[in-house]
Amino acid sequence: MNCEKCEKDANLLVILPLHRPDGCLNTIACLECAKKSGVYCLKHKKPHLGFDDGTTVCIYCIEAEVEQHRVELTDLVNTEIFSQIDEASIERYYAWLADVNVKVGEINKTAGIRAIVTLALRRRVEPKAVIEAIKNEGLDIILPPQYRLDPS
Ligand SMILES: [Zn+2]
Ligand SMILES: [Zn+2]
């Protein structure tokens, strides 16, 4: 099969979350093109996961960042966000957290931290910048659409 970027025949092809002009959401590329694409993690040697808005992130980087920032972010969520955000938002946040915890059997707040880290990596900013963004734009920016006040 040929690489859809350089059109060379390659033994190893990876699926990249790059939208094609024909509307297809993925591009099949050789390793050389993948490495240059910006949507392939060089550290973990894996293609990124793509989102509807075109942003991408390496899921292995998410988990590494969650571990690295867990204590700091848990603290910031408690002190910076829960003290400032309206109660209705916090209720939606906990409704989502409860659903996630049932699904993955996780009885803690990791999903919230993971959502912050994921958005930080998608926006290519520090997790702390997402805390600031939540303070300005509301908690809904880290919630899946169906848990937002305005699900559209
Ligand atoms: Zn190629
Ligand atoms: Zn990675």
How many helices in DSSP terms? 5
Gap between N and C termini: 39 Å
How many individual β-strands?
Answer: 6
> Order of strands in the sheet with the most strands?
1-2
- Give the overall shape, derived from the CA principal axes: elongated
Query: Total domains, how many?
Result: 2
* Ions and ligands: zinc ion
In angstroms, what is the radius of gyration?
18 Å
Looking at how many chains there are and whether they match, the oligomeric state comes to: single chain
Helix % is 40-55%
Q: Low-confidence stretches at least 5 residues in length (pLDDT < 50)?
A: none
Sheet/helix structural class: mainly alpha
Average pLDDT rating = 91
